[in-house]
Amino acid sequence: MRHRRRLRSIVLPLLASALGLGALAGVPARAAPDTADADTAGITGVTVTDDAVTVAGTAPGGAQVDVYALPTEVPETDWAGREPVATGTATPDGAFTADIGRTAADRELYYSKYLAVVDGAPLGTYHYADDVRITPVNDFPYPQSPTKKGLQVQMTADAEELGVGHAGINVAFNDLMQLTDEGPDRSIPFTWNGTEYYFDAGHVASLDRQIKPLSDNGAVVNLILILYRDDSPNSAWPVLKHPDADLTGGPVFAFNTETAEGVAHYTAAIEFLAGRYTREDQRYGRATGFIVGNEVDAQFVWQNMGEKPLEEFLLSYERALRITHLATRTAYEQARTYTSLTHSWTTPSGPAVPAGRFYPGKDVVDGLNALTKAHGDYAWHIAHHPYPENLLDPAFWEDTTATPDPDTTPRITFKNIEVLNAYLTRPEQLYDGQPRRVILSEQGCNTPGDSAEAERLQAACYALAYYKIHFLPAIDSFILHRHVDHKHEGGLRLGLWWWDDSRPDPAPPAERKLIHDVFTYIDTERSLEVTEFALDVIGIDDWSELVDGWDPDALAVRDLPVTAGASVTARPLRATTLFDFAGGTQGWRTSDAANAVAADDGFLRTSFTYESGMSANLAQLWRGTDVVLAEPADASAAAALTLRVRIPDDADIGSRFAKVRLYGTDGSIAEGAARLPADGGWQSVAVDLTGWSGREGIERIKVWARGDTNAEWSGHFDVDDVRLASRLTGAERVANVEVDASAAEGIGVGDPVEITVRNDDLRPVAEPIEVRACDGVAVEPAALDAAGLAPGESRTFIVTVASSAPADEYDPALCFVAGGLQYTERVDVPPPPVPVATPIYDFDDGTTQGWQAGPGVDTVTAVTSMANGPGIPQAGTHLLDGAATVGSSLAPKTMYVDPAQPLDLSDAGRVVAYVNSYGGAPGATGYEVTFTLASGDDELTVTQPYTADRWNEVALDVSQWAGRSAIDHVEVTMHAVGADYPTWNPHLQVDSVGWFPAD
Questions:
Q1: How far is CA 759 from the centre of its chain?
Q2: Which residues form a coiled coil (predicted)?
Q3: CA nearest 818: which of 733, 758, 707, 755?
Q4: What is the spatial distance between Cα 992 and Cα 985, in angstroms, rounded to a whole number?
Q5: Is the distance from CB of 721 to CB of 580 less than 8 angstroms?
Q6: Which member of 310, 711, 764, 940 has the greatest number of CB atoms within 10 A?
Q7: Residue 168 forms beta bridges with which residues?
Q8: Cα-flanking dihedrals φ and ψ of residue 14, to 5°?
Q9: CA–CA dist 468, 489 (Å, integer)
Q10: Contact in structure between 910 and 995 (CB atoms under 8 Å)
Q11: What are 627-639's pLDDT values in tens digits?
């Protein structure tokens, strides 16, 4: 605690003189004390206007005071080698002021720290601008959302359907900023302080595509400012990285505030981001919150500055925090700057040895508070992460380390989140008389398994956490992490969606979990309905038992969209054309997951390109285009809005769907969904307006398209003839039905198939829906009695497979005819059986099963988890972990076993092992693994590249190897490729060593 006492010894005398400003020209001043002594002398305030800086303070009466403006990165002792920017004389009662132009010696002084010197001795300590009165570029009220519900968004269209009100978007500065200009198509130049800096045009465009759809929908967007290692030739990472960062530490690095070059690059980047994303016209989208770094109390991992005492870490980190506040303030006065904390409070989140890697979150808050009050306080806020105490266990209501005393609780989790507010309301923690704001910018609930019960536990965790936070007025938002489960997140399954194992992406969405529905409706009139199950899971009878201030009447803060019927057979009569695209795009623009819109031969084409890792572009997800009408359209006399949509028939995306969303000036939204024939032609879609209150003023229209597979979809869809129709013809044909088919036992003859039909049309279904034989599959009965099925209703039927010869028994299809239109529907069937290897070594008895450390490895241990992805064994309960010796990244790291009795694998055709490692090698371009089997002097070996932080299969074909009947040595070796890093100490993991029989 010594650092806090030392900082307070500076802070207290400065606070005692906080009212010591002399008169400032044109600026109301605070009164000065009657005299100045050694304890109160020094700068007490720095005011910045558009043209000037005014420094005020106290000094011995009549003394000549020299004022120095120091760059933020230089030590305050550096004043002696510089020229003062102003000199003045203290009044007899000890007050002084100095008026300085905003620039001196061609240097912008806004970011400087100021020091007063009398007779060659500094008075007090340095002081930054703490009274900023500049005119910002943009001026608008801080955006407000009716809900606290937020998400770290991966798929913007899904976020809109979820009703997200707050969002967190990562901004990786290593991808954002370049060292040199790559030309107009690849670089965006930006001038700051007379120097030109460069930003990656493709990365900025990607940020635009994430941010703009969110803010267009009213979400309050926060940018999470982080830095990863990046050895790309033109990445600014080497300049932006803190010079003391330990490359063997964690993956997120602290920003460089130690050198003039680092400070300049960081400041330019913040001004660029603030200027782009706080525009009043929202041209690129709007972001108003800026979170500096990630979980800075766990700095060695998530704000890597090397091993440092807390006070030294904070001196450097606080400079980045202050620069962010000042830089964003130039663009938008109400921009908010946040620091980021883990759930650890009075104890650090990591080991105490070695020292200087992890700090208690409370000490970080206290240290920042003392530091900023000592050198000019400002509005920095807190982005807290109150995960459950065990991130793998979502039952936070059972946390034992989250206690009610802010001075002693080891952690602040969902269970005791109110403790944080109690601490921040203490008088010594206030800024300008108010507690610092709090957002919850990253936290989530794990799914501890793949069962329905695991989904219920995850969803119950979210429900209780949301309700607690909803009724805590001191917390502005609850931003959930994650949107989709991530394969390399230490075994955690935090998403609203399961990941798709069949895809190589780290977080490709497969199916929604239960929590997806809970998240969607928890802030609406359906809130209690979708969370009722959670009471039993948690073990309570009523939410008031665990939620302070519980009021069920206050839950519905967001209106649900109105579901409107949509016809694909109706045609407009007496229609008024809104858009025909004969004169260009007519204001239509890209929206979710789209790259470009263009007018082409009198229609609008929306294009999109699948990018590796950008899972928002998979076929099953919406992508689209929208328009804000120049004047709201009055559709009060219209029966429907109609348009034509075309999805090319060469798109291998399964079934086709379109959705139209209409936004009213009254704040209401109507939406109609349509299933489209897959013939590649123009399809008419008519959306019923008659039951929607917002029809009197339509201010925005959005059109989405999607398929129903997880294929990569690069391509386009087209829109034309957007009209308001006073009447429709052909609406009596009910063809817009959604059909889902599943065969839990497979698609063999006699197997049952469950078929669910939902009517999305304008009118009730009037005739049976025919099930035609296609793809070699026929069912009985061949007609589904859906007559009378009303719009918005569903009905389920059970049929039996009569004949079955599909092209792929694991991807069969049925054909349906409704209203004269035929649709093809894939039938969900159990996946093909996965061959299971006969185990040789699985380590599930908790032992190493004879495996030993070889060259480059210190110890081997059977463990149940690992620090990084995938976090869990490849199968079973244990895996083998090897801790490498510190040494060259190119040197082999080996684990091996010499069986007590030679292994007889005479029946084997293939022997496999699963390999992983974590602890990235700085500069490495990849990693290689070698798998070796030996029988006496006879060896069989294979070397192949592999990917860290995931299980990789490595296999040997032993079908023709004579030695397979007497294997007496098994060995796994790995090393890095591409760079020789001399002090590397990764961990190597092996699991599920086994064999498959010969074909």
A1: 35
A2: none
A3: 733
A4: 24
A5: yes
A6: 310
A7: 152, 222
A8: -70, -40
A9: 26
A10: yes
A11: 999 999 999 999 9
**Strand ranges, E, within 369-454:** 380-384, 438-443
How far is C-alpha 448 from the chain's CA centre? 21
> Is the peptide bond between 870 and the residue preceding it cis, with omega within 30 degrees of 0?
yes
827-837 residue pLDDT tens: 999 988 888 89
Q: Angle at CA 507, nearest 5°, toward 506 and 511?
A: 140
The answer, yes or no, to whether residue 8 has pLDDT greater than 70, is no
The amino acid at 524? T
Predicted confidence (pLDDT) at residue 16 exceeds the cutoff of 70:
no
Residue whose entry in the numeric block shows the structure tokens 């809900």: 147
Cα(343)–Cα(533) distance, integer angstroms: 28
Angle, vertex CA 788, rays to CA 782 and CA 793, nearest 5: 95
Fold of the CATH domain 838-997: Jelly Rolls (2.60.120)
Query: What Rg do the C-alpha atoms of the chain give, in angstroms?
Result: 32
Quote the CA–CA distance of 489 and 868 in Å, as a whole number: 6
Is the Cβ–Cβ distance between 974 and 925 less than 8 Å?
no
The SS3 assignment for 167 reads: strand
CATH class of the domain defined by 2-132: mainly beta
Name which of 345, 441, 445 is nearest 393 in CA terms: 445
Helices 310-331 and 260-277 meet at what angle, rounded to 10?
40
The Cα–Cα gap between 204 and 183 comes to: 15
pLDDT for 68-111, tens place per residue?
999 999 999 999 989 999 999 999 999 999 999 998 767 889 99
H or E element at residue 596: strand 596-600
Distance CA 989, CA 916 (A): 5
Phi–psi pair at 475, nearest 5 degrees: -105, 125
What pLDDT is stored for residue 321 in this prediction? 98
The pairing of strands 166-172 and 149-152 is: parallel
> d(Cα 993, Cα 933) in Å, to the nearest integer?
12
Cis peptide before 830 (omega within 30 of 0): no
**SS3 for 214?**
helix
DSSP single-letter state for residue 921: P
11-15, 373-377, 612-616: which is most confident: 373-377
Amino acid at 897: V
* CA count, 13 A, side-chain hemisphere, 13: 17
Q: How confident is the model at residue 355 (pLDDT cuts 50, 70, 90)?
A: very high
* Cβ-based neighbour number of residue 736 at 10 Å: 27
Helix (H, G, I), strand (E, B) or coil at 121: strand
**What are the pLDDT digits (tens) for 745-758?**
999 999 999 999 99
Amino acid in the structure at residue 732: E
Q: What is the average pLDDT score of the chain?
A: 93
Tokens 């606080």 belong to residue: 318
Every domain range in the chain assigned CATH 2.60.40.10: 2-132
Dihedrals φ, ψ of 244, to 5°? Answer: -95, 5
DSSP one-letter code for 414: G
What's 323's DSSP letter? H
Q: What is the C-alpha separation between 367 and 1, in angstroms, rounded?
A: 10
702: helix, strand or coil: strand
Pick the closest to residue 627 from 673, 589, 576 (CA basis).
589
User: What are the strands, taking DSSP E only, across 647-694?
Assistant: 656-664, 669-676, 683-688
* Nearest Cα residue to 517 out of 553, 568, 547, 560: 560
Indicate whether 904 pLDDT > 60. Answer: yes
User: Which tokens go with 902?
Assistant: 């030679």
pLDDT (average), residues 11-15: 30
Residue 25 φ then ψ, to 5°: -60, 120
Element (H, E) at 458: helix 452-470
- Written out in words, the top-level CATH class of the domain with range 562-729 is mainly beta
Q: Where in the chain is the domain with CATH 2.60.120.260?
A: 562-729, 838-997
One-letter amino acid at 79 equals W
Please name the residue that has the structure tokens 């992983």.
916
